[in-house]
Structures are given as structure tokens and as C-alpha cells.
Amino acid sequence: MRSARLRLLTILALGALVLGTAPQVAAQAVRIKDLVEMDGVRSNDLVGYGLVVGLNGTGDGLRNAPFTEEIMQNILERLGVNVTGEQFRPRNVAAVFVTGRLPPFGRAGSQIDVTVSAIGDASSLLGGTLIMTPLNAADGQIYAVAQGTVIAGGADAQGAAARVVQGVPTSGVIPAGARIEREVEFDFTRLSTLRLALREPDFTTAGRIEQAINAAVGSAAAQMLDAGTVSVDLRQTGAGSPARAVAAIENLPVQPQRRARVVVDQRSGTIVMGEDVRISRVAVSQGNLTLRIDEAPLVVQPNPFAEGETIVVPRTNAEIVEEPGIGLAEVPGGTSLSEVIAGLNALGVSPRDMIDILKSIKAAGALHAEFVVM
């Protein structure tokens, strides 16, 4: 226990010495366009309900998906084929949802990518073709029409008594599979004020964006409203038009500030942390207990030609093994989390044990960062 404590303290001291004497690297400057969303410059979600045909017997079972038969009847009747009262049970069609995004300033005639996903009991969309499907926005209007061959990202094979599936063959994409038919009614040239919405609200970052814009245009055109919004008076930028003003300010470099945060994924053992995470003075002790139970029943039989019966005598071996862990080690105050992780890695602590240690440090109030568990 004493040797583990000395090793951890030595590693932390060396890490603090090296990192403390090294010059601090300045935060990387980021363009304003990568930090904010601009008012009016946004995409719109589209969704449609359609039919994929041409499947090799992997479509919907119409008994379990009656809506597939209904949409197939509607499509055939629109094409002039009367199927009223007919009984058909094909296995080469599947009902799907088609989703896509209408990009900002998307013009009629432009093409966009769409995603096709089965909603019935179809086992695969490989080799299928999406029939013309209108795509609606939240206002119920049709903005695009999709059609084309589905590219599914999986494989499905089966035999008489076994089946193997790789990936998700019930979902696929159609690159440039939808054509825009209606444009969003938005006149960007009439804007006099542009609001910049920060993707990660922060007062310091918003203040730096305000300063960068005002310094670039030479006037007080930008004003920080709150931690997540910066308002820009486009008339004071001197650019002549809103589009020119946005082009002039969106590439200005700004050094963003973020809250100290630690993100852990318990399923994969992944730990991601920011450079501003700090730990106060705290003592750490960690060890593992393993409980092992082995069952070895013993069968006892009577001698030949003797009266009696066969019985099973239980035999159980139970033991608790304490695996080597970290003894009580003291972490000095002001230590960065990267130094603690480096020390734990050098002692051979597994990522999952490291996550448990970080949870305990956070519960003790010594980890000064937002702790996010996925």
C-alpha cells in the first residue's frame, strides 16, 4: 500500500513539474461561423411516406402491415390501374418513411440526399427502388419529391435453419434522391438586424464575438444581448447588403471559452476531458473484490447388489479474492485531471476503475467540472 502511494505521488509530482514548467499553449482560434447559428440561415426537416418496390422477397408481409397494401392500391389507382376488390399478397414491396433536410437558401430544381427507413416487417431494402414520394415540412406543404434506388448499408442472408444479418439492411440512403419543388419564402436582403445564436452559450465567448465584430467593422454594430445571443446591426457594418455583411464577419477568428467538463462513457470505458478541469486536495484509495463460487456436486451410489439409492451430495467452494489496487494516495490541490489520469495509467488502473474513481472524486466535491455520464 505504501509503495503504491509513493509511486502515485512521484508520478503526479513529475507530471505537475513537467506540465507546470512547459509554456501554456494558447487556445485555438475558431471562426465565428463555426460557433454560432445565424438568424434565418437554417435548414428545415422534411418527411414523407412512400413505397419501396423491387425487393427480392424481403418486403412487408401484408397481413402484418396492412398500410402497405393501402398505399400500393392508391399508387396503382393514380396510375389508372383498378385494383378494387382484388386480393394480392406480394413480398417485394415495403412501406417506408423518407426523411431529408431542406438546406438554407435551397432553390427549386436543386437536389438533396434522403434517408429511407422501413416501418413494416420488411427484412431488407437491398436492391429496392423508392417510388415518387412527396416530402412535407412542418407547415404541411410539399417542398421536395424523392425517387431513386435505395443504397442500404447492410447484408442479410438466410437458409433453411439459420440466418445472418450484418449492419442495418432495413435503412438506406438515396444520394441526391430528392428534387426541391418549393422554396422557403424568406427574403434575406430585407434584414436590418442579424442575431447570432451561440451553439454553446457562454458570456466570455459572446463578449469576444462582440469585440471581434466591432473591431473589424470599426463601429458598435455588434451588441451582446446574453450568453447565447449577439445582435448585429447590419446597417452599421458598411457592407452595403446583408449578404456582404455576413461574409465579412463570419470568418473572423475568436477564441471560445467553455465550462470545464468531463464526459465518460461507461459502455466503452471512454473518458474525454477539457483542459480547464482541476482537482482539489483529496486522498484516493481503490481496490477490487472478486467473489468466486464453484459448484462440484458429488454423486454417491450404493454397492453392487446392495439395497439403497443414488444421491447427489452438494459440494460448494466459495472464496473472496482481493485484487491489488491503489493504496491511500494523496492528490495535491490544484492538480489537473490530466496529471491524475497519467498517474492512474502508469499504475495500470483500467478505464472502468478510473471512471469509478472520478465519480468518487466528484461526489467528494473535489472535481471542479461538469461531470457527464453517457
Describe the structure.
Keywords: Bacterial flagellum, Cell projection, Cilium, Flagellum, Periplasm, Signal. Assembles around the rod to form the L-ring and probably protects the motor/basal body from shearing forces during rotation. Belongs to the FlgI family. The basal body constitutes a major portion of the flagellar organelle and consists of four rings (L,P,S, and M) mounted on a central rod. Its main location: other. The structure is a single chain. The chain is α+β, with helices and mostly antiparallel strands and 374 residues long. It folds into 3 domains: 2-26 and 260-293 and 321-373, no CATH class; 30-40 and 187-254; 44-180, no CATH class. 21% of the residues lie in helices and 40% in strands. It contains 6 helices and 23 strands. It has helices spanning 2-21, 66-78, 203-217, 242-249, 337-346, 351-363; strands at residues 30-31, 36-38, 44-53, 93-102, 111-118, 129-136, 142-149, 151-158, 163-180, 193-198, 222-226, 229-233, 253-254, 261-265, 270-273, 278-279, 282-295, 298-300, 311-313, 316-331, 335-336, 367-368, 370-373. The strands form 7 sheets. A 6-stranded antiparallel barrel has the order 3-4-5-9-7-6. A hairpin with a 4-residue loop joins strand 14 and strand 15 (270-273). Helix 1 crosses helix 5. The radius of gyration is 32 Å and the shape is flat. It starts with a helix and ends with a strand. 24% of the residues are buried. Mean pLDDT is 78; it is low at 1-26.
Span of the ends, CA to CA: 33 Å
Number of domains: 3
Uncertain stretches of 5 or more adjacent residues? 1-26
Element order, helices and strands? HEEEHEEEEEEEHEEHEEEEEEEEEHHEE
What is the C-alpha radius of gyration, as a whole number of Å?
Answer: 32 Å
Broad shape: flat
What count of helical segments does DSSP give?
Answer: 6
Structural class by secondary-structure content: alpha+beta
Query: Can you give the mean pLDDT?
Result: 78
- The percentage of residues in β strands lies in 35-45%
Q: What strand order characterises the main sheet?
A: 3-4-5-9-7-6
Sheet with the most strands, sense and barrel status: 6 strands, antiparallel, barrel
Number of strands: 23
Fraction of residues in helix: 10-25%
Keywords: Bacterial flagellum, Cell projection, Cilium, Flagellum, Periplasm, Signal
Family: Belongs to the FlgI family.
Function: Assembles around the rod to form the L-ring and probably protects the motor/basal body from shearing forces during rotation.
Main location: other
